[in-house]
Amino acid sequence: MEKVYDYVIVGGGTAGAVLAARLSENSEVSVALLEAGAGEGPAIMSDGNPEAAVGLWGSSVDWNYTTTPQSGTENTVHTWPRGRVLGGSSSINGMTHLRGHASSFDAWEKQGAIGWNYQEMLPFLMRSEGARGGDPRFRGQTGPMTIEEPPAATPLAQDLHDAAVDAGHPRCEDGNDPQAEGVFWAERNVAAGRRQSAADAYLFPVLSRPNLTVVTDAQVRRLVIDNGRCGGAEYVQNGEPGTVRAEREVVLSAGAVGSPQILLLSGIGPADDLRRLGIPVRAALPGVGANLHDHPLAWISYGVKKSPVPGPSRQAMLFARTSPGGDPDILMSFTAVALEPRWAGAQEGFSILFGLATPTSRGSVRLSSADPAAYPLIDPAYLTESEDVARMVAALRMARDIARADSLSAWRDEETLPGREAVTDEECGAYIRRTAGTYFHPVGTCRIGTDDEAVVDAALRVHGVDGLSVADASVMPSVVSANTNAAVLGIAERAAHLIAHPRRTLR
Ligand SMILES: Cc1cc2nc3c(=O)[nH]c(=O)nc-3n(C[C@H](O)[C@H](O)[C@H](O)COP(=O)(O)OP(=O)(O)OC[C@H]3O[C@@H](n4cnc5c(N)ncnc54)[C@H](O)[C@@H]3O)c2cc1C
């Protein structure tokens, strides 16, 4: 039997959990949340140790996507973890809570997302945060997403932090300061030693609300669209088809891969591509699935002369810029193990990871088939712009300067990666192309804007279709200069405000 709700939210990840919780605060409206994955995952999903997240990649709660062969990284097919469970990718992520420099939010408005800049986003970023003790001018103190004081630093973690200062980087009190630059201690989404996914923070505490229905193991196949209006969604649960109807609105929060995939399957996207697959065109929107990008990530690794103290530690991170007049465009993190390329393992030692925070390379998510069960073609176009490689080379050199600083002299042994093979810019670039991969931060495939390639307007409504919005990482015109979860929480808080507000103004 067809069920009817006021709002149907598709995808119970970071954004979907926020929307379900916020919209159902109004007991006058009914809300349904459909999630393709399960309601819960393996026990390590509640581990407070960020490294435990690696054990979730490739597990039953991961979609286990792969990319198309990437010409910029020696035709590598990259594994691409994305959460498939309540909490979505926040259930399998590294728990770093970092918003990004103000300039990376202001860049959205410069690209046509009117009203989407740092100042406008700030109240919503703050609304999500429970960061006790932060500067109340820009930190939220009472929001659902708990940010616990990280553990003390081990001696190696402290020396990694201090090496960045030796190398000339300023100390930064709070990495979530809008003008953050230099080295700071990372914050994590942890409460009482346990991981806080968006589901833990927002959804699970309100599951008993009578006006909220959460349907798990329900994969949405396509949207129901009649006469230019979206009236619901078709899904499959345990092999059985079902339909839900939305009286007011369907909100897509299926992430940077899932949201464009569902739009395309529903006939909303580039008309020629849809016709080629035999999908009837409901709205010709050439930008659906375009503009996919992610932070490319690589690292350098060193052996150590003495064994580091094992155990939990806070972790230093760093914002830096490759050009003196530019905005911060490099994000580093320092880890007290020597990682092998592309997470293949770890040895005793340390690594300095560097990601390009403002990549210019752009790829796409496209359908491989009209079959909703088929995985889409994911092309993040890593390092296809030579400018991105040049800035990654500059980041590698910055990382080396830090690794060779005095504070690490008691620890530092041989450079194991890249080592002597990478000296010239060309050699460093070749090393980066051979080893770089995902920082797990894809965005941009349903971007906000008013131009022909934009997918949603500034109030997050899909152009040309009534009763349909998108709210998740896919709406970012360009990726923020940090790990993306905190920014997605802010986007979803703002989306809930916009959707619940009858006049749909931006404030
Ligand atoms: C391995 C990994 C590590 C990361 N580490 C960090 C970190 O340390 N800090 C940080 O800030 N960010 C991190 N991120 C990124 C961050 O978690 C994401 O940016 C954020 O979770 C994205 O939120 P979202 O709502 O856009 O999508 P998601 O959280 O991915 O949610 C999408 C949801 O939609 C569901 N869905 C998809 N298709 C359908 C369908 N057809 N029908 C029904 N449901 C569907 C999915 O199963 C999923 O639950 C990491 C991500 C990963 C994968």
UniProtKB/TrEMBL annotation:
The keyword Ribosomal protein does not apply. It holds the Pfam family GMC_oxred_C. Residues 255-269 form the Glucose-methanol-choline oxidoreductase N-terminal domain. Its cofactor is FAD. Keywords: FAD, Flavoprotein. The keyword ATP-binding does not apply. InterPro entries: FAD/NAD-bd_sf, GMC_OxRdtase, GMC_OxRdtase_N, GMC_OxRtase_C. It comes from the Bacteria. Belongs to the GMC oxidoreductase family. This is GMC family oxidoreductase N-terminal domain-containing protein. It comes from Streptomyces niveus.
